[in-house]
């Protein structure tokens, strides 16, 4: 009975690892209220940086957004909730009252969910933005679906390997 239980636990762990197709770098398209290109890079255990270059479907504006994002695994490592924030700068060819609108600059917030299956990462997000200067309005919201291709699969960083070694060492000492 002990051998069957051990085998079941080992298979469950292997299956979880096989499904955990996390990534270091993924790039693709973002479609929604604005459309553009997105590149997401993992920079620490559950933290990534994202760059979005986008054009608005509602305004005559485009923007470059840089975000820091914290991920929280949900059930398994390849299904995440995330939240983050950052800055944007952009360009505008809009006019209001006969005067050209200034180029937007401001802060962004983002919250959403993502799943990675094999080499495909799909995410949905809600991204409100506040223009500190320029732009056709001070506050606007965006939603989007990003479809990214995993360029580099997740590899263990040195700090992860050390954490795993320490955990094994503590278990052997018991």
Secondary-structure content class: alpha+beta
Overall geometric form: elongated
**SSE string, helix = H, strand = E?**
HEEEEEEEEEEEEH
Distance between the termini: 24 Å
CATH architecture: Beta Barrel
CATH overall fold name: Porin
Describe this structure in words.
This protein has 174 residues and is of the alpha+beta class. It has one domain (25-161): Porin. The chain is built from two helices and twelve strands; from the N terminus they run αββββββββββββα. The chain has an eight-stranded antiparallel barrel with strand order 1-2-3-4-5-8-9-12. It has a two-stranded antiparallel ribbon with strand order 6-7. A hairpin with a 2-residue loop joins β6 and β7 (99-100). 24% of the residues are buried. Residues 3-21 have low confidence and may be disordered.
Describe the secondary-structure layout:
Elements: H1 2-19, E1 23-32, E2 34-44, E3 47-56, E4 61-74, E5 76-92, E6 95-96, E7 99-100, E8 105-117, E9 120-126, E10 129-133, E11 139-140, E12 143-153, H2 158-172
Antiparallel strand pairs: 1-2, 1-12, 2-3, 3-4, 4-5, 5-8, 6-7, 8-9, 8-10, 9-12, 10-11
Brief account:
The protein is of the alpha+beta class. The chain contains 2 helices and 12 strands, in the order αββββββββββββα.
Protein traits:
8-stranded antiparallel beta barrel; disordered N terminus; 174 residues; 12 strands; Porin; alpha+beta
């Amino acid at each position: 009975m002990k051998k069957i239980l051990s085998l079941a636990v080992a298979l469950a762990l292997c299956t979880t690892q096989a499904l955990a197709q996390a990534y270091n770098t993924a790039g693709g398209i973002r479609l929604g209220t604005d459309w553009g290109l997105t590149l997401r890079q993992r920079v620490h255990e559950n933290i990534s940086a994202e760059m979005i270059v986008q054009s608005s479907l509602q305004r005559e504006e485009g923007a470059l957004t840089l975000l820091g994002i914290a991920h929280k695994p949900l059930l398994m490592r390849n299904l995440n909730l995330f939240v983050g924030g950052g800055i944007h700068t952009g360009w505008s060819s809009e006019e209001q009252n006969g005067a050209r609108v200034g180029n937007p600059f401001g802060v962004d917030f983002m919250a959403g969910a993502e799943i990675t299956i094999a080499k495909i990462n799909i995410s949905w997000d809600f991204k409100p933005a506040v223009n500190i200067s320029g732009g056709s309005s001070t506050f606007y919201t965006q939603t989007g679906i990003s479809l990214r291709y995993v360029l580099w699969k997740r590899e263990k960083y040195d700090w992860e390997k050390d954490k795993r070694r320490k955990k094994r060492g503590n278990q052997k000492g018991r």
